[in-house]
Write a structure and sequence with these properties.
Blueprint (H helix, E strand, L loop, with lengths): L12 H10 L3 E5 L3 H9 L4 E4 L3 H4 L11 H14 L4 E5 L9 H15 L3 E3 L7 H9 L4 E6 L5 H4 L9 H17 L3 E5 L3 H10 L4 E4 L7 E4 L1 H4 L17 H17 L11
Parallel strand pairs: 1-2, 1-8, 2-3, 3-4, 4-5, 5-6, 6-7, 7-8
Length: 272
């Protein structure tokens, strides 16, 4: 069943709450640079996430852990300059908020002041309660992230589905309620059973954004490089590729090389 959409000139945290209340699904994609963010924003994506996944898809690291706060601010600044409609949310990177709440607040303030972003995102529940509370008290909007939390990959040792067992599922539900009570405006649920994700979405008043969490949540997020088929070696079940840019770009670049080698490029029309 289609849902009437309200037109928004600029998406805010309040807009996302309204979308949940009206039954309109929320679209969210990553971006890490001005050019990509400009395209994503013009396509009316509701939320642009400047994810610490930049560590993987931009810098080539195996995990999200190596990316620094300075690097995240650099990427976020580029995205903010492009986004005219979307809400821009920025991941606080690993090591910038876990040790104590004062450091967490300093990191969040730097992101907001130096990049111009609209909100930050953190991974975890009870373990980071103090940090979340202090950031929120400063008036900075916070998006939570539960389920598979990539910053904790060495703790879990795998990227497999989380919260399949009852104990972990109960903790996830408890953490979601905690984040809501603290004042988070939304939560990302990553790679958990669809039935559990739907249960969480129905139990809280704030939007639940899923990635590998089924269709019973309030919105979806993907890494834009995965959606466009630029990261062709990545094949999780939850990913739908809308293009195959890896092959298209490879073919175009190979053709360019051939044209240069054969002296076909530039031709007379392409010369001054």
């Amino acid at each position: 069943m289609s849902v009437a959409k309200k037109e928004y000139k600029r998406i805010t945290v309040k807009s996302l709450i309204e979308m949940k209340q009206s039954g309109e699904k929320i679209s969210m994609l990553t971006s890490y640079d001005y050019s990509m963010a400009k395209i994503v924003d013009a396509a009316n994506v509701d939320v642009i996430l400047v994810g610490d996944s930049a560590s993987n898809v931009i810098a080539g690291h195996e995990t999200t852990l190596p990316i620094t706060l300075d690097q995240m601010i650099y990427h976020a600044s580029s995205v903010v300059r492009a986004a005219k409609r979307a809400l821009v949310v920025v991941d606080i990177p690993f090591g910038s908020y876990q040790s104590d709440s004062k450091e967490a607040l300093r990191s969040a303030i730097r992101i907001m002041k130096e990049s111009g972003a609209h909100a930050i995102k953190v991974e975890g529940g009870t373990e980071i309660k103090g940090s979340v509370g202090r950031i929120l008290q400063a008036g900075i909007p916070v998006m939570g992230h539960l389920g598979l939390t990539p910053q904790s990959i060495y703790k879990f040792g795998t990227y497999t589905v989380r919260a399949k067992e009852e104990e972990e599922a109960e903790k996830l539900k408890s953490d979601a309620k905690l984040l809501e009570e603290l004042g988070c405006f939304a939560i990302v649920l990553e790679k958990i059973p669809a039935t559990l994700a739907q249960e969480v979405a129905e139990s809280v008043s704030i939007p639940i954004i899923g990635i590998g969490a089924g269709n019973g949540v309030d919105g979806q997020v993907l890494v834009v490089h995965d959606l466009l088929g630029m990261t062709h070696e990545f094949h999780p079940r939850f990913l739908r590729r809308y293009m195959n840019l890896y092959d298209d770009m490879s073919e175009a670049i190979s053709q360019y090389v051939d044209d240069v080698k054969s002296r076909d490029f530039p031709n007379d029309d392409e010369s001054y």
